[in-house]
Amino acid sequence: MNITKILINWYSINKRVLPWRKTKNPYHIWLSEIILQQTQIKQGLPYYEAFISKYPNVLSLANAPESEVLKLWQGLGYYSRARNLHASAKYIVNDLNQEFPDTYKTLLKLKGVGDYTASAIASICFNEPAAVVDGNVYRVLSRFYGIDTPINSSKGIKFFKALAQDIIDENNPGDYNQAIMEFGAVQCKPANPDCNLCPLTQDCVAYRNNNVQELPVKIKAKKPQKKFFNFLVFISDSETTVLEKRKGKGIWENLYQFPLLESDKSLTEKSIKEILKDYKLTKNSSYKLTLFNQDEIIHKLSHQHLYAKFWILNVSELPQAVTPVPISKINDYAVPVLIGNFIEAFNF
């Protein structure tokens, strides 16, 4: 059985109609691939369309303020993708004279572009036979060939990349790469795939051995770290509040949030008041404190789970040390989805 030809034929009949499949413009393909990292198509599609509408080419994206790019990205999470996207656009414009990289090796020089994204762009846009390997590809190959090597081990990553490269259609690498990814997403799904309708069952080792659900094998990740976030939502009589820009290389870099008190356990109103006695923004000042959410809001990230409380501090005026933000302008700031959901729920 020629898996390559079967997958390309299947793709020609069953592929979903998506806007980035109507073009080989590398800017469009790059944008779609970055957005769809860690994001399902149904969630990512409106963002892709919004970015293409606002930034129709790499020059317009490069010239945009980072805060504007982050605001448009708001809700997608993994904000480093947006920052890398913006930085790479500037690199293409300033260092490459607006000429998009056209080989696998040169695409890897773009910030935020790794093996998978470089392979996808190189094959789809420039017909370079560079095999993609993503979660869908791992699943199809591990099941079809009956491979139980963990896909997130160094051995597994090298093995599956070599296997994918070995079977790629060198004359039509773009369609083949899209075919195997689409096949994994639509047909060879993670849970309960319909093997009765699969064109590969005749030679599928996992189907023959009745262990489809056991493949691919993945080493279990470490348990996410638990953190407790206490956001201080100042509201002054003049309808202003306080927002702080996050610094450093941690989560939500360059996004805005309410002043944060981080703790190793859930804090009560009494313990918050004790902390606020010496807190820079409330020391020697009067305020009325109320808790917005009695139950902590659990916000799950890949490596940590955040347990958030929002404490409302009504004050006559804000401390002189801060720059007041008019509540009427609060939606102009790029914030993490956790903060955005609170802003919407509180309705100021």
From TrEMBL:
Give the cofactor note: Binds 1 [4Fe-4S] cluster.
Q: Which domain of life is it from?
A: Bacteria
Q: Which UniProt keywords apply?
A: 4Fe-4S, DNA damage, DNA repair, Glycosidase, Hydrolase, Iron, Iron-sulfur, Metal-binding
According to UniProt, the reaction catalysed is: Hydrolyzes free adenine bases from 7,8-dihydro-8-oxoguanine:adenine mismatched double-stranded DNA, leaving an apurinic site
Iron-sulfur listed as a keyword? yes
Q: Write down a Pfam family by its short name.
A: HHH
Q: Does the keyword DNA repair apply?
A: yes
The UniProt similarity line reads: Belongs to the Nth/MutY family.
Matching entries from NCBIfam families are given as:
mutY
- State the protein's name: Adenine DNA glycosylase
Q: What is the lineage of its organism?
A: Bacteria, Pseudomonadati, Bacteroidota, Flavobacteriia, Flavobacteriales
| Gene name, Swiss-Prot/TrEMBL | mutY
